[in-house]
Write a structure and sequence with these properties.
Elements lengths: L36 E3 L7 E5 L9 H15 L3 E5 L7 H4 L4 E5 L8 H12 L3 E5 L10 H7 L3 E3 L5 E7 L13 E5 L3 E2 L10 E7 L17 E6 L6 E4 L11 H14 L4
Length: 268
Amino acid sequence: MLALLLAACGDHGAARLDATEPDAAPDAARPVGFLDGSCQGQAGKPRVLVYTYENLWRHMSNLYARQALLDMCTTRGFNVSSSNDPHVFNTAQLAGFDVVVFAVTSGAGIDDAGKHDFEAWVRGGGGVVGFEAAAATEPAWSFYVENLGAAFATHPPKLYDGVVRMEPVSHPITDGLPPIALLEQWYVFQQRPEQVPGLTVLMTLDEDTLPGDFPPELKLGYHAYGWAQERFGGRTFYTALGDNPDTFADPTVVELTGRAIEWAAHQR
């Protein structure tokens, strides 16, 4: 197992940058992004960039997500690199990856040139996988939000036990997976994901499994918790799981993650 290279801060510290729409061609002279971890898997397996940048909140879990993905060099043969540098979003570096994982990222940090290059990469078939606060990442960038599928609205003030169930729809990511019982934060979104055109809901929070002190105003009846879409040329999967670091040690979540990456890379 590779050692973690980054230090974790407190769970939720406040900081934020403004984001704007990409409206300029990329600057060939801009910096190249720094990679803080890398491991080699097997030739022909997905080439994965794990992006961990945060400046809105700070999650211990994004380091655990990063490590779980680096471990997939061994367990699934993936070729994985990681970075918390927004400059990694440039045409030259993105060309070396099949999938970008927004591993519990938050806030805005990608510049206009990076947005331009990332959008072109997705429209050219690049895959995206997002966890938890990926839905609170680049919130003013409409392409990113629409490609992810829905934006974060709120969550309860603490973690609660609950069960996520796979929807009765056949999909390569979730086929045959069991329900997942977890202690999590349980997001609510600005949109109803099941009403977003093109989204296929794959996972839902079973609200009947929540404890009695769960805030009733955050119960939705039908509570989408993971979905997939192919609206913009590439394949995207998102789940709001991931606030609790222990989530990334759950074997079903690890399998779900591996399958999501393979699907996003057109290998499942």
